[in-house]
Each structure stands twice: as structure tokens, then as C-alpha cells.
Design brief:
The complex is a heterodimer of chains A (113) and B (114).
Chain A lengths: L4 E3 L2 E4 L5 E6 L6 E7 L6 E7 L2 E4 L8 E4 L6 E5 L8 E8 L7 E2 L3 E5 L1
Parallel strand pairs in A: 2-11
Antiparallel strand pairs in A: 1-3, 3-8, 4-5, 4-9, 5-6, 7-8, 9-10, 9-11
Chain B lengths: L3 E2 L4 E5 L4 E7 L4 E9 L5 E8 L4 E4 L2 E6 L4 E6 L8 E9 L7 E3 L3 E6 L1
Parallel strand pairs in B: 2-11
Antiparallel strand pairs in B: 1-3, 3-8, 4-5, 4-9, 6-7, 7-8, 9-10, 9-11
The chains are: A mainly beta (113), B mainly beta (114).
């Protein structure tokens, strides 16, 4: 596709529910990142993939958060047993690899009630 | 640990004014620095990317500079317009293990008054 695509754009989850957020990176992009952005804050790093390999998951806040990219393209961020503090925008980004420009999607807005 | 600071958090200027947005970072060992724009309810749009070996980049009315040794970058916006109203985020790309992740500032919310 022309850009990074994320779905759903908006999700309201009841506390304790599991959610899955999908990211379609730009075709051919090797690197894929997930970020979490709370209201009024800058994005915070969650995890990074190079192709299908998850090379860094140091930013995942707890073991309730899990990300995968099994075929090196589409990625899914899964949050189990959601809590209110998980309410945020989850941004996916991709880049061709190396140190070039990183392109972001529109984000998935998660509200936990 | 890399920290990125953007001050002030918000800025309001009259239309037509030239303005400078500041960004500072604590660790000068960076690959590059990227400026983004974020509109309310939207994702991030890349504006300019400056590699660590470069001093500045220009795109239209935007000019970004980088002084790696002092840990500073500025985004210069010439002849500001109401359509420039948005949040501007600075992010540095540092090496962290096998990953060169972006570390963001909190952003500067710019309002350009007609």
C-alpha cells in the first residue's frame, strides 16, 4: 500500500478484555516499530521487528503485551486482560531498513472502560 | 538513556511570523534526527530527516538544523500560516542493542492565529 495502515482505528474495550491491533507496513519495509502514545505525551517505544525477528521488546510494559510479525510483513500487537492504564494511541511505523525515514500509520485509539 | 526535551510545550503566534522550535537531546551518539508533525486525532507525518553527518535540511518553508555536539536541533518555519497549527515532535534515532529506535520529545503544540 501507499502508507502504513492500522486497524481498527478506534477500539473501546471493557476492562479485562483481550484486544488485537493490526499493522500493515509499507510494502517491502524491513523494519517495523510499535509505539504507545498517551494523551499529551510523545510516543514511547514498545517493540521492534526486523523482518520476522523481534529484535527488541524492551518497551513492552508488561507480560500482558505481545507482538508478532510471523511472515515479516503484517504485525499484530495483542494486549491481554486490558487495564484502564492501557488506554492510549498505539502507533505502528515502518522503514526500509538502515537509518532512513520512519513512516507512521494513523494509529489505533484504544479506550479501556 | 537518551532523553529528548522540547520547550515550550505550547506556542501561539500571529500569522506571517517566522518562528523557531527547539529540541535538545542528552546523548550525542545518534544516527539521525527526525521532525514530525501531528494533527489532532492523526498519526505522525515526517517533515525532515537530518543524518548525524549533516548540519541542516530544508523543505519548502521548513528548515531543520542539527548541532550534534551540543545536543540541539531547531525547526525553523518561515512565514507561518494557520495551516501550520499542529503539534511538532522531534525524535532522535540512537543505537540500542540490535535496534536503532526513535526517542521522542513530548512535542510543541503550535497555534498560528489568523
Amino acid at each position: 500500500g501507499a502508507g502504513v495502515s492500522q486497524s481498527p482505528r478506534y477500539k473501546v474495550a471493557k476492562r479485562g478484555q483481550d484486544v488485537a491491533l493490526r499493522c500493515d507496513p509499507i510494502s517491502g519495509h524491513v523494519s517495523l516499530f510499535w509505539y504507545q502514545q498517551a494523551l499529551g505525551q510523545g510516543p514511547e517505544f514498545l517493540t521492534y521487528f526486523q523482518n520476522e525477528a523481534q529484535l527488541d521488546k524492551s518497551g513492552l510494559p508488561s507480560d500482558r503485551f505481545f507482538a508478532e510479525r510471523p511472515e515479516g510483513s503484517v504485525s499484530t500487537l495483542k494486549i491481554q486482560r486490558t487495564q484502564q492504564e492501557d488506554s492510549a494511541v498505539y502507533l505502528c511505523a515502518s522503514s526500509p531498513g538502515g537509518q532512513g525515514t520512519i513512516y507512521f500509520g494513523e494509529g489505533s485509539w484504544l479506550t479501556v472502560v | 538513556k537518551q532523553e529528548v526535551t522540547q520547550i515550550p510545550a505550547a506556542l501561539s503566534v500571529p500569522e506571517g511570523e517566522n518562528l523557531v522550535l527547539n529540541c535538545s537531546f542528552t546523548d550525542s551518539a545518534i544516527y539521525n534526527l527526525q521532525w514530525f508533525r501531528q494533527d489532532p486525532g492523526k498519526g505522525l507525518t515526517s517533515l525532515l530527516l537530518i543524518q548525524s553527518s549533516q548540519r541542516e535540511q530544508t523543505s519548502g518553508r521548513l528548515n531543520a538544523s542539527l548541532d550534534k555536539s551540543s545536543g540541539r536541533s531547531t525547526l525553523y518555519i518561515a512565514a507561518s500560516q494557520p495551516g501550520d497549527s499542529a503539534t511538532y515532535l522531534c525524535a532522535v534515532r540512537s543505537l540500542s542493542g540490535a535496534n536503532s529506535k526513535l526517542t521522542f520529545g513530548k512535542g510543541i503544540t503550535l497555534s498560528v492565529r489568523p
